[in-house]
Amino acid sequence: xxxxxxAESIQAGLNPAFLLLGxxxxxxxxxxxxxxxxxxxxxLALSAHIYSIPQxxxxxxxxxxxxxxxFVIQHRKSIESTLVFKEIxxxxxxxxxxxxxxxxSIPVPALKPMLGILIVIFAVRxxxxxxxxxxxxxxxxNAQFRFWTFASGITHGIYAxxxxxxxxxxxxxxxxxxxxxxxxxxxxLFFNFFLIGxxxxxxxxxxxxxxxxxxxxxxIPIGIYLGEFLHHRISVRTFxxxxxxxLLVSGVSFLV
Length: 256
Description:
Oligomer: single chain
Structural class: mainly alpha
Radius of gyration: 17 Å
Low-confidence stretches: 1-7
Mean pLDDT: 82
Number of strands: 0
Shape: globular
């Protein structure tokens, strides 16, 4: 089903479409609780077959806030603060500004296939690298890291999901799994607060969307519990396979 055929408004309650959205939210936010990213891009790609993207984004971003806030508070000692505030936020913030401009001037559907192809290429390449090597990933130059961080900001401004490109860059820092997860959660918390305000400025909030968030909110603690349970029971190498697999699924979902 294409976006034009999708429902224009989210009707919260015991209806099949909303119950399916709940299943998608639980799956995608559990994934983020394991890896540190993936909730919005996976949930958006799957639930865009049910509801319109403009309706979904405020709900998905709103649900992402308590998830990220938990990890930032609970695992604050694992956050790589220097990386967040000196290397990521400045360049990604600039990219988000560009993304919001593009969102208002370029048809979003034209950008989705390009993004999907890019993500799939990265995921397949890194997956092959993982199968061939057991050591750390090769580092990026500062210029390369800034470029991909800036690009991730652009996609975050457009889709509220710059995760795949930022993961590609941050994974080259060879952080531990817990440090990687907490650091990524800090980034999403910062930018999702910004997007909440931006959506309010655009007048995209409604009582229906707030009700949807309220009804879906109990799924977030369940996702956190499942994510924490699985995160501590998989090896580092398996963790990176999970990360690249989520990237691949995310990229394919944009194409499909």
